[in-house]
């Protein structure tokens, strides 16, 4: 135990008070922000998220770290481990509020886990060091990486949640065997299971190297070095590990993660070419199709005005084209050409009883058509448009003033029509050029939605007249469909839950109803 000699008075302070107060303040601030989100139905974003992240990192992360170090100074290893774990948790949670790019957080969590796992043969037997390593590796490499995996699924990224989910398992198993194992005194017989797991990890990661070859050189390098790290893990289960090799591999892994973090953050903040990530080793077939001389239909680049004009001419001439939206790709036909709308049914093999909706660029287009809507419907549409929500409303002569013209009987049902106002600059400009478009998802009926222009080309390119190429979709599911036919009675009905959760739609509706009282 410590004595009075040689220690300042702060040694006898209670670091637990600092840790608990920091926990309480941060939890209360997050509670307030989440309560406001639940009440208004609008998620925090922009400056609000950045300020929340800075608060969590500086106030709770730093204070918990100080409390943890003071606890270790008092030889209270249990409290020290808990506080440092909380520091890693709050700091990582704060980072998720600040960083704009999912890949940035992916590289950051793996880098922190690798740095925490660095150790030497002598220090690996230190109980204090092991207690420090457990929360740092586990929280950053497993807990926060689980959050990254969830973001990857929602964002529809190229490798989705596969690599983050796998690395989550790797770091969790690594922590259990290398750091928690000595504390729990795992028997040699018990380590055989970890040997089998390490072999399985090696095989799975080999396939992930192939996936990363379609990404960039940084990701490819990361997966290759992870293969070497897993070899070290396998050797450690066999009691044959040269620790110098492990230190070297973890150090290289950490450096790659550091560069990936900085590059992803800088590129998402400024412009993509500031810090190169390297080209893919294997070219994506979807990207190659864009320049293929044997394409089944004309292509246009969404980044240029000439591309929009090209597609608009094809639509005006009665063609059916694949276009991007704020959710998934859609097949579009001009409302000036009813026959083109009929062709959509043949192209998709779509049942005749399934109506087609119309797409416009803004709510102001509806205002100009002067439909006889009640104030509650107007206010609800202004709160959900533009965005991934489609509203079913009553049909009427106002559709003729909107520009639907001869397509009146070819869109919607006899008494209702679904309106889409995508939150997508390209689609909005295209509708401004062509007028209202009849759209439906760009996939054969009953098959998954198209989330890349290459999918539209490969599945429907031989049946349509053009594709507006815009790369990966922002979402992996279609819009949420809301029946507003009885909105004046104070009710709406969720026909299909898509990219916008049904609970959020109802929150928006309740907020609008309350504001109209």
From TrEMBL:
Gene assigned in the entry: LOC115206772
GO BP of this protein: regulation of translational fidelity
Transmembrane segments: 12-32, 52-72, 128-147, 159-177, 189-210, 217-241, 247-267
EC number: 2.7.7.87
Membrane is among the record's keywords: yes
One Pfam family matching this protein: Sua5_yciO_yrdC
GO MF terms, alphabetically ordered: double-stranded RNA binding; L-threonylcarbamoyladenylate synthase; tRNA binding
Protein name stated in the entry: Threonylcarbamoyl-AMP synthase
Keyword Transmembrane helix part of the UniProt annotation: yes
Alphabetically ordered keywords of this record: Cytoplasm, Membrane, Transferase, Transmembrane, Transmembrane helix
GO cellular component: cytoplasm; membrane
SUPFAM superfamilies in the record: YrdC/RibB (SSF55821)
Record domain YrdC-like: where: 305-500
InterPro entries: DHBP_synth_RibB-like_a/b_dom, Gpr1/Fun34/SatP-like, Sua5-like_dom, TC-AMP_synthase_SUA5
Catalytic activity: L-threonine + hydrogencarbonate + ATP = L-threonylcarbamoyladenylate + diphosphate + H2O
Topological type in the membrane: Multi-pass membrane protein
Enzyme class, UniProt record, top EC level: transferase
PANTHER family: SUA5, THREONYLCARBAMOYL-AMP SYNTHASE
Similarity comment text for this entry: Belongs to the acetate uptake transporter (AceTr) (TC 2.A.96) family. Belongs to the SUA5 family.
Principal cellular location given in the protein's record: cytoplasm
Localization: Cytoplasm; Membrane
């Amino acid at each position: 135990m410590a004595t009075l000699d040689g220690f300042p008075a702060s040694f006898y302070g209670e670091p637990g008070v600092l840790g608990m107060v920091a926990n309480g303040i941060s939890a209360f601030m997050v509670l307030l922000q989440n309560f406001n989100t639940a009440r208004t139905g609008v998620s925090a974003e922009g400056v609000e998220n950045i300020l929340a992240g800075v608060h969590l990192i500086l106030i709770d992360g730093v204070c918990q770290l100080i409390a943890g170090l003071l606890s270790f100074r008092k030889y209270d290893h249990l409290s020290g481990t808990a506080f440092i774990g909380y520091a890693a948790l709050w700091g990582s949670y704060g980072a998720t509020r600040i960083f704009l790019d999912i890949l940035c957080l992916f590289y950051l969590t793996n880098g922190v886990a690798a740095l925490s796992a660095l150790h030497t043969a002598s220090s690996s037997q230190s109980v204090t060091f092991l207690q420090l390593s457990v929360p740092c590796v586990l929280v950053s490499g497993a807990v926060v990486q689980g959050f990254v995996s969830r973001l990857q699924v929602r964002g529809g990224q190229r490798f989705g949640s596969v690599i983050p989910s796998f690395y989550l398992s790797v770091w969790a198993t690594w922590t259990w065997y290398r750091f928690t194992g000595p504390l729990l005194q795992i028997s040699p017989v018990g380590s055989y299971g970890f040997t089998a797991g390490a072999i399985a990890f090696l095989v799975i990661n080999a396939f992930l190297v192939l996936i990363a070859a379609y990404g960039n050189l940084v990701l490819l390098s990361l997966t290759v070095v992870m293969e070497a790290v897993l070899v070290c893990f396998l050797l450690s289960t066999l009691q044959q590990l040269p620790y110098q090799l492990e230190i070297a591999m973890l150090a290289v892994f950490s450096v790659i993660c550091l560069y990936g973090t900085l590059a992803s953050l800088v590129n998402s903040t400024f412009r993509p070419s500031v810090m190169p990530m390297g080209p893919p080793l294997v070219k994506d077939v979807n990207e190659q199709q864009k320049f293929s001389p044997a394409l089944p239909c004309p292509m246009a680049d969404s980044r240029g005005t000439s591309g929009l004009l090209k597609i608009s001419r094809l639509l005006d001439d009665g063609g059916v084209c694949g276009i991007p939206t704020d959710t998934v790709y859609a097949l579009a036909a001009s409302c000036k050409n009813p026959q083109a709308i009929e062709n959509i049914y043949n192209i998709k093999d779509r049942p005749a009883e399934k109506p087609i909706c119309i797409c416009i660029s803004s709510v102001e287009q509806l205002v100009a058509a002067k439909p006889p809507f009640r104030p509650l419907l107007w206010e609800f549409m202004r709160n959900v448009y533009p965005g991934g929500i489609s509203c079913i409303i009553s049909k009427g002569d106002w559709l003729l003033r909107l520009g639907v013209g001869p397509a009146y009987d070819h869109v919607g049902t006899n008494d209702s029509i679904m309106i889409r106002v995508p939150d997508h600059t390209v689609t909005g400009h295209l509708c401004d050029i062509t007028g209202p478009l009849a759209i439906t998802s760009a996939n054969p009926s009953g098959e998954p939605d198209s989330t890349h222009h290459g999918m539209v080309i490969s599945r429907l390119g031989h049946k349509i007249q053009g594709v507006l190429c815009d790369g990966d979709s922002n979402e992996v599911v279609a819009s949420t469909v809301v029946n507003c036919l009885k909105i004046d009675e104070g009710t709406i009905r969720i026909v299909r839950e898509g990219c916008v959760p049904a609970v959020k739609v109802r929150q928006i509706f309740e907020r609008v109803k309350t504001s109209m009282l």
